[in-house]
Amino acid sequence: MRINRYILFLLGTFLSLAGIAQQVIYSEPDRSDVRQTNFEILGKVGGNILIYKNLRDVHYMSVYDANMVQLDKVKYNFMPDRVINTDFLSYPDFSYMFYQYQKKNIVYCMAAKINGSGKKMGDPIVLDTTTINFWSSNKLYSVISSEDRQLINVVKINTKNDENHIVTSAIFNKELVLQERVVLSVNMPDRNDYLTEFQLDNRGNLVFARTVQGGQEDRIQKLFLYVKPFGNNLVRITNVDLNESYLDDLRIKPDNTTNRYIISSFYTKGKQGNIDGLFVAVLNNNSSTLTTKTLLKFDDNLRSDAKGENSFKTALNDYFIKNIIPKKDGGFLLAAEAFFTTGRGGLNRNNYMYGSPFLRPSDFYMFSPYSSYGYPWWRFNNSNTNQLNRYHAQNILVMSFDSTGHTDWSNILNKNQWDDDSDASIGYQLVNTGDQLHFLFNMQEKRTQLLSDQSIKPDGQLLRNPTLKNLDKGYDFMPRYGKQVGLRQIIIPCMYRNFLCFARVEL
After folding, report:
1. How far apart are CA 370 and CA 20, in angstroms?
2. Which is it for strands 260-268 and 246-247: parallel, antiparallel or unpaired?
3. Vertex 431: Cα angle to 429 and 436 (nearest 5)
4. How many CA atoms lie within 13 A of 417 on its CB side?
5. Rounded Cα–Cα distance for residues 164 and 398 (Å)
6. CA angle centred on 339, ends 335 and 341, rounded to 5°
7. Which member of 20, 38, 99, 504 lies 3.0 to 4.6 Å from 54 by CB, making a disulfide possible if both were Cys?
8. 29: which DSSP letter?
């Protein structure tokens, strides 16, 4: 009898702990944070949670404790007028704020160091300047970092000469001490040559791609991979044979464990045909050779599971790669989501994938690594969108590959999201807890949007976890803008009565 009571006691304790582990804690809505406020979640810095906010020319940092109580709101009076853009890179005890602004005909790329209290540490540092003419775009600099955040690369791409683009790369260490500065001349011999997907690995090597399209509306028919080794100005170029296939959604991901680069894209057998499958290649940085190259054709079972509201032939036409996660064994995981718009200014795959920023009458081009895994209506395009559009985000495809590029398993997370007014509440955010990949997204239940948590185990098993607790009515989550701040913690922005607030979610 005592044993049974002891077992019941333990069971009750475990259930109680499980209930405590999963919780949602909201910040108080700040009435000055209206719907139009721009924001960026920096994460945990010095024990506090920092969130940058901007409305018009006013910049400030909100500082929250672990219970999402706002401790301070620091106004950044040092910021100049007409800031072009801001990026952030956070560390456990401080964060860098990178920003660009124009004064007369000079564009400045700056860095300010922020402590855990949200206050500026020292004076901002000038990383680079560029003199531009009246017709040039003033969005010049891209700031990318290595995965371990020990190296920071400031990239500038001059496209004034159609046949020869100039890439300036300045690599800094964690203390913003310049380690290397090089100027690369990239030949662009074909009329529809474009540069895509710049990445920096932990060794300081810069990798990017040059693609060739038959025309503005055609898919990629030639692919060249460029690797600029750290400390060596000799750029290695690899011509990738596409085997008469055509690519469009090209992605490059450094695998810092194996010193390789994972290249992936959906492909078709025609210039504007339906998606046939997935192109996968792996480039060995040591030997500059492709160790893997395969065209994975989607079978009937996957098409049937993935098609959603599409037909069998067009099942994968709305999917775009969102995440590539290298595994310790040399394999990798890939997640892609179906999204599109409908309406008078609706977008389809053909007209929003190929409106390259290089087609603009501009002398410079800024590659944004932060939006490269985004949504089609975020991308540069030549389509005219308007408020009559309906935004859709549907099923998620998750695939696992071994070190040779062959498929271990695949699975589909079913969802159907749409919104007429805004795209902010649709889409998903990925939380990697080590033992599972959690996909957080809103689901409509009885006219109420609830934050759903579905996860994938390492063997591909799909888990539909219980609805999160403490989901108070009136809070509309925007999960795709969230940021993971701990092993099982994520900060998610939400709207409450048209005011911006934030929630700390424990999984």
Report:
1. 34
2. antiparallel
3. 130
4. 30
5. 39
6. 170
7. 38
8. P
Residue 228's closest CA among 262, 165, 188, 182?
Answer: 182
Amino acid letter, residue 144: I
Phi, psi of 447 (to 5 degrees): 65, 15
Can you read off the two tokens belonging to residue 290? 């492709």
Using CA atoms, how far apart are residues 228 and 457, in angstroms rounded to an integer? 36
45 neighbors 116 (Cβ within 8 angstroms): yes
Contact 377, 316 (CB under 8 A): no
If one counts the domains in the chain, the total is: 1
pLDDT in tens, the chain (507 residues): 444 444 434 444 443 444 445 789 999 998 899 989 999 999 999 999 999 999 989 999 999 999 999 999 999 999 999 899 999 999 999 999 999 999 999 999 999 999 999 999 999 999 999 998 876 678 899 999 999 999 999 999 998 888 999 999 999 999 999 999 999 999 999 888 889 889 999 999 999 999 998 766 678 999 999 999 999 989 999 999 999 999 987 999 999 999 999 999 999 998 878 999 999 999 999 888 999 999 999 999 999 999 988 999 999 999 999 999 999 999 999 999 999 888 765 555 555 444 444 344 456 666 665 544 455 444 333 344 445 788 999 999 999 999 989 999 999 999 999 988 788 899 999 999 999 999 999 988 777 778 999 999 999 999 998 877 667 778 999 999 999 999 999 999 999 999 999 999 999
Closest to 213 in 3D by CA, of 198, 234, 191, 229: 191
Please state, in angstroms and rounded to a whole number, the distance separating the CA atoms of residues 396 and 410. 11
The verdict on residue 8 lying in a domain is yes
Within a domain: residue 438?
yes
Enclosing domain of residue 18: 1-29+424-507
Nearest 5°: phi and psi at 344? -60, -40
Residue 194 lies in a domain: no
d(Cα 264, Cα 278) in Å, to the nearest integer? 7
- Report the greatest alpha carbon distance in the chain: 86
For CA atoms 265, 269, 271, 274, the dihedral sign is negative
Phi, psi of 143 (to 5 degrees): -110, 115
Does this model's pTM top 0.85? yes
What is the spatial order of strands in the sheet that 106-115 belongs to? 83-90, 94-103, 106-115, 120-131
Residues ≥6 apart with Cβ < 8 Å to 84? 99, 100, 101, 102, 107, 138, 139
Do the Cβ atoms of 295 and 277 come closer than 8 Å?
A: yes
> Residue 175 contacts by C-beta under 8 Å, 6 or more apart in sequence?
none
